[in-house]
Every structure is written in C-alpha cells, then in structure tokens.
Amino acid sequence: MAVSKQLEDLYDDTTVDPVYYAKAHVLNTAIQKIGMGRYQYYLFVCAGFGWFADSVWPLINALILTPVIAEFDFNGPFLSLAANIGLLVGAIVWGLGSDVWGRRWSFNLTLLIAGVFGLSAGGSPNLLTLASLLAVVGVGVGGNMPVDSAVFLDFVPASHQYLLTVMSVWWSLGQLLISLLAWPLIANFSCSTSASTCSKSENMGWRYLLFTLGALTLVLSMIRFFAFNLLESPRFLVGIGRDQSAVNVIHQIAAYNSTTTNLSLEDLTSVDEKHVNQDGVALRPVLSETSIFTTTHIKALFATRKMAISTSLLITLWGIIGLASTLYNSFLPYLLTSRGAQFDDGNLYITYRNQVILSVIGVPGAFLAGWAVELPYIGRKGTLTISSGLTGAFLFASTTARSSNQLLGWNCAYVFFSNIMYGVLYAISPEIFPAKDRGTGNALVSTATRVFGVIAPVIALYANLSTAVPVYISGALIIFAGFLALFLPFEPRGKASM
C-alpha cells in the first residue's frame, strides 16, 4: 500500500497544549503511515448513518406536517419546536459526553434511541404523544453529527480528511430516501385536503412513514452494534493516561487493514519525558481528566486569541445558518403546497413529487464539495463562502416564481448549493477543533444551530408564511454567514487535523 507523505499540522504547540500536540502528532503520523484502508472505509459507511439520521428525522417533521395537522388540528410550528428542543438536548449531552466518557457509547447509542422512539411515534394517539416521542428521537439524532464527525477524524489519515466533506452524500441520500417513501405513503394514505374531518383510519400515511423510518434506523443501529467494531479513539485513550491501550488500537487498525505499524509505547511515553514541570514531574495531556462534566474542554477552545476567534466564528456561523435553514426548510413542503395552491396546482402528490426531485439534486453536491475543498486558493473557507452566497442568492430568486415549475427550478438550485454549504460546514468545524476538545466544540456549534432551530418555529408562529418575508430573511442570513467564513483564522486544506 502506498503511503502518503506526512502533512503539515494545522496547529503548533503554541496554539494547543504542547504535550497534547506532541502526542497527537505521534498518533497522526502512525495513522498516516497505515494509510486509508478497510477499517476507514467501513467507518465511512457506519459514520455515514449519522448523517443519514440527521437528514431524515428533522425533515420528517416537515413531511408529515400537513396530514398531522389535518388529523390533530393544531398550530404547525409546535411540532417542529418539540423536535428541535430534543435536537438541542442531544447535541449538548452527546457532544460534551464524547469528551468525557469516550466516543464508543455515544456512537452506538444515538441511533438506537432514534430508532426505538421513532418507531413508537408512529402509534401516537394524539399530538402531545407525537411531539414528546419526536423530541426524544431528537435527543438521539442530535448527537450524531457532533460525535460521528469526531470519530471519523480520529481514525482517518490526514491525506483523506476531505472525505468528511464527502460524507454529506449520506445526508443527501437520506433526503432522497425519505422523500421517495413520503411521496406514495402520504399522497395515497392521507385525508383529502378538502375534507372537513380526518380520522386515523383515513390518515395512516404519516404513521406508515414513521414506522418505516424507525425500523430502518433500528437496522442501522444494529449494524453499528454487531457488524462493525468501533475502537475507542486513541487520542481519547492517551488523554486518560491509557497510552498502552492507544498503541493497541493503532495496531488493531493496522491489522484490520492488512498492514503493520511500528508505533510503540515508548513513542508516547517519551513525550512525557520531554515535557516536565519545574519539579521534574511529567505533564499529562488534557483530553478527559475526569468522568464528570467540567468546563475544562470549553475553556481550551478559547485558551488563545486565535482559538477564541476561531471558535466564536464557528459558533456564529452555525447559529446563523441554523436559523436561516430551519426557518426555510422546516416549512418547505408547506410553502410548496401553499404556493402551488396560488398557482392552481397545489396537491399532496405534486408537493411530494417535487420534494423527491429536490432530494435527487442534492446528491451530486456532496461530491462536488469534496472536490472543491481541496482546490488551491479556495479550500474549505472559499468553498463555504461561495456556496453560501449562491444558496442565499437562489433563495432570493425563488420569490420571483410565478408558477410551480419556476419555484421548483429555483429550489433545485438552492438545494444543490445548500448541500455543498452544509457538507463543508459539517467538515470544517471538527477539522479545526483539536481532538482533545472536538466533541465539546462540535457540541457548542451544534447547540448554536439547534438553539436557533428552536427559535425558528417560534418566529413562524407569528410570521405570515404565505409571504416571501421568511425567504428574504433566510437568504440574507446565509449570505452574511458566507462572508463571515472568510475571517476564520484556520484553513484545514492540506493540513493534518490535530
């Protein structure tokens, strides 16, 4: 197997803890020498299940909104509000927890929770039960992105970090699958939009959709449990003083990839010998000092001026884009239906047919994003800025539509570039955060987008969704976020994430 050359480190020992930096460099070198192999490709698939879940479960709230309102007769944004509260809790608990109790439990439990409670949600007898169960689903789903991106970067060679951007193809495939399922189920097993009453027996489509997606999520969680053995992060193990276990993990990866590694325990312990305090006592790298939540990891993300600027900008980016996209995406099927009614062709069939078309458009965006982030002079920041600008521009353009087909065309362009934007955003953040605080950093940015995801439905409760105002607000916010991306102090292209 050809081995790629060792890339320059993203940080130096003045940016992060010097002991951590030295040990992370040793581990990076060892993983780079092992190269991209069977273990990493299997991990790409299993971690991709997290992107899949993060795509389908938030979207399902929008897909089932029309028939659920017909059956339970409530103000639509309340359902999205409940789901986003769950996503917020999940992002905080699992993201922070992955830096405390390790990656494995978080990685394996998040999908299981989503599958069990998602399946149960299909049998909901009333709105309160449905909203509560979908909130618990959100607790599971909310942890997928913070944890899974950290897991993938912990094991992938630096030369293949761009695959974290390509990972968004799972997000696009999730949207496509759920739209393909929603199209026949909701269009054929829902009450007529003109019906004055809507009984459960006449409105089983959304329940069938929840049963199907819940069962599929359970299958994916079982694959993670039984078909793929996720090893604990070697960086996490080093941080809790288990250097030998970290070395063992590296050797297990090499064996799984049918190769070898010369990493030894002495390679790590020698770092301690070089970094001692005034009393000659070895300084211990700080990854996870305790098994309880503390502010240690949060403080580390603001320890230097450069790190503080980087973390603050990333939190701001995620918050702005989270507000804009949730405000628009959560009610996209409703907007399509209401606009379609204005164009005299609004019905469930056309609404969900268009949703399928939009989902297909998003798939190639993931591969284009993976190519663009490796381009010289453009990289991650440039790709994020360009895609955000075009996403906002096409949102503005959609307000000029005078027919359903025109609206669909503008939305196709919006979805294509927004998938590129999200692919880069989901990758650049964990790449920039040091592994010792990556779960916490991912939790902070995910919390920002989830907080505004909670605010978006509240705004929708008081906004007139039949006007173009929410679209203008969303477009302006996304363009502004793209501009802010230019000021990030770190560019991960061509650098080894630490």
From TrEMBL:
It is found in: Membrane. One of its GO terms (cellular component) is membrane. One of its GO terms (molecular function) is transmembrane transporter activity. It is a multi-pass membrane protein. It comes from the Eukaryota. Keywords: Membrane, Transmembrane, Transmembrane helix, Transport. Residues 1-493 form the Major facilitator superfamily (MFS) profile domain. The chain crosses the membrane at residues 41-66, 78-97, 109-128, 162-186, 206-227, 313-336, 356-375, 407-428, 440-463, 469-490. The keyword Nucleotide-binding does not apply. PROSITE patterns: MFS. Its main location: membrane. Coiled coil: none annotated. The keyword Ion transport does not apply. Belongs to the major facilitator superfamily. This is MFS general substrate transporter.
